[in-house]
UniProtKB/TrEMBL annotation:
Keywords: Oxidation, Oxidoreductase, Plasmid, Potassium. The keyword 4Fe-4S does not apply. GO terms for molecular function: succinate-semialdehyde dehydrogenase (NAD+) activity. Gene3D superfamilies: Aldehyde Dehydrogenase, Chain A, domain 1, Aldehyde Dehydrogenase, Chain A, domain 2. NCBIfam families: SSADH (TIGR01780). Pfam families: Aldedh. The active site is at E263. Residues 33-485 form the Aldehyde dehydrogenase domain. This is NAD-dependent succinate-semialdehyde dehydrogenase. It comes from the Bacteria. One of its GO terms (biological process) is gamma-aminobutyric acid catabolic process. The keyword Phosphoprotein does not apply. InterPro entries: Ald_DH/histidinol_DH, Ald_DH_C, Ald_DH_CS_GLU, Ald_DH_N, Aldehyde_DH_dom, Aldehyde_DH_Superfamily, Succ_semiAld_DH.
Length: 491
């Protein structure tokens, strides 16, 4: 691993990387190949990392398999203590971790600090949940037998995390696995591997034994994914990313009937009913749409606004969006950082162009900032119809299309008219409407009169083609446990 001054200049304690480099057991062997990590705001080189291949993945899996029996055999309190110590170290080094995150991903430093705190919260939550893995007894049909259920860790977990939340997704996936007694092989996104590496170095300081946590740096995910899916020592795959890749991983896991947890794409509706608090809805839409430059799987992708409040909402919303400052995440008062790469810029430009050609109106924004780079103006578009690409596809950028509606029943139908079912939002004050709409929306998570709802205490996940399983909460722990029925006779 080679770090450049453009990264280390932001760090108070760059020695956490030195510790990672001195611990080969935290990664696989690595060959001669290397790949760069760049700052999306400036294009500067941040680091050069070993580019691992399928053979290296096999080494990491073997290490995880060799460590799993001893790790699972520890008292729950010992696993809890390690997670708790990791949580404390993450908080202690939170400024450096946030700086690494902003450098490699681009999000504003304040958002990065919030993400690091969120990651630490998952570690704390599952440090506590590790002590709460319960079985059950069942009333037997005769007096000479006893029937009971125990829960045991699945085994080796293959985890693949995305670039948009490179710290919190690591914590959200692997902390329940570790609490349950599983060992982990993690492949972070090639665009944002550095914060994961720093977190793993801190995990070693927290006392995790060799082989429990294994890190794979790789510029291409295909070979790593195939190895994780095909190796029989890996009992489960946990993946966050696109629905297309999720389908591919599911097919690759099917030969072994391997367990999977997927958090996939979204197309979140944001509905403002005629009885909504318009000012509150505007602020909620800012949160739900423009956090992380709109690059979140739960980002509001379609804003449906009732005709009676449409003009007021659109005017106030566009006025508020115009105040959002775009720039390098390290600069003061920046609210929106860059998109992750030029492909993201191309997609948002295509969505804007398609909408304008089909009759939409740009209320603010709509343009790339500068002839090169990956900054884009936060954009509001009105007079949007369902035939436009931005109403049917996930944009994954700072683009907010507003769709006028009149019929409350029809808007729920329109909101549900998608293969996705991850997150939805709506604003209303009538309690009867709140309950009916909340139950009618076909989504795994529904924010009611709020634009943010993620919490380590709540189950995160979707319906339909937005995923399988849940992360966070006590339910997230169950996804890493196998249920075993014991029947004891001859008593």
């Amino acid at each position: 691993m080679t770090l450049t001054p453009s990264l280390t200049a932001h760090l108070k304690n760059p020695e956490i990387f030195a510790e990672l480099a001195s611990l080969p057991d935290l990664s696989a062997t690595g060959g001669a190949k290397r790949f760069p990590v760049l700052n999306p705001s400036t294009g500067e080189l941040l680091a050069i990392l070993p580019d691992m291949e399928a053979a290296d993945v096999g080494v990491a899996i073997d290490r995880a398999d060799a460590a799993r029996v001893d790790w699972a055999g520890l008292p729950a309190r010992a696993r809890s203590d390690a997670l708790w110590q990791w949580h404390q170290l993450i908080l202690y080094h939170s400024d450096d971790l946030a700086a690494i995150l902003t450098a490699e991903m681009g999000k504003p430093l304040a958002e990065a600090k919030s993400e690091i705190a969120h990651a630490a919260a998952y570690l704390q939550w599952y440090a506590e949940e590790a002590n709460r893995i319960y079985g059950e007894t069942i009333s037997a049909s005769s007096n000479d037998r006893r029937m009971l259920v125990i829960k045991q860790p699945i085994g080796v977990i293959g985890a693949i995390t995305p670039w948009n939340f490179p710290a919190s997704m690591v914590a959200r996936k692997i902390s329940p696995a570790l609490a349950a007694g599983c060992t982990v092989v993690l492949k972070p996104a090639e665009q944002t591997p550095l914060v994961a590496g720093a977190m793993f170095a801190l995990a070693r300081q927290a006392g995790f034994p060799n082989g429990v946590l294994n890190l794979i740096y790789a510029s291409e995910g295909d070979a790593v994914g195939r190895q994780l899916c095909s190796n029989p020592k890996v009992r489960k795959i946990s993946f966050t990313g696109s629905t297309e890749v999720g389908r591919l991983l599911m097919r690759q896991c099917s030969d072994q009937i391997k367990k999977v947890s997927f958090e996939l794409g979204g197309n979140a509706p944001f509905i403002v009913f005629d009885d909504a608090d318009v000012d509150g809805a505007v602020e909620g839409a800012i949160q739900a749409k423009f956090r992380n430059a709109g690059q979140t799987c739960v980002s509001a992708n379609r804003l449906y606004v009732h005709s009676s409040v449409h003009d007021e909402f659109a005017e106030k919303f566009a006025e508020r969006v115009r105040t959002l400052r775009v720039g390098d995440g390290f600069k003061t008062d920046v609210a929106i950082g860059p998109l992750i790469d030029v492909r993201a810029i191309a997609k948002i430009e295509a969505h804007v162009s398609d909408a304008v050609i089909k009759g939409a109106t740009i209320r603010c924004g709509g343009n790339r900032i500068g002839p090169s780079g990956t900054f884009f103006e936060p954009t509001v578009i009105t007079e949007v119809t369902g035939t436009m690409r931005l109403a049917r596809e996930e944009t994954f950028g700072p683009l907010a299309p507003i769709i006028r509606f009149d019929d409350p029943d029809q808007v729920v139908h329109a909101a549900n008219d998608t293969i996705y079912g991850l997150a939805a939002y709506f604003y209303a004050s009538n309690l009867k409407r709140v309950w009916r709409v909340a139950e009618a929306l076909e989504y795994g998570m529904v924010g009611i009169n709020t634009g943010r709802m993620s919490s380590e205490a709540a189950p995160f996940g979707g319906l339909k083609q937005s995923g399988i399983g849940r992360e966070g909460s006590r339910h997230g722990l169950e996804d890493y446990l196998e249920m075993k029925y014991l029947c004891i006779g001859g008593l």
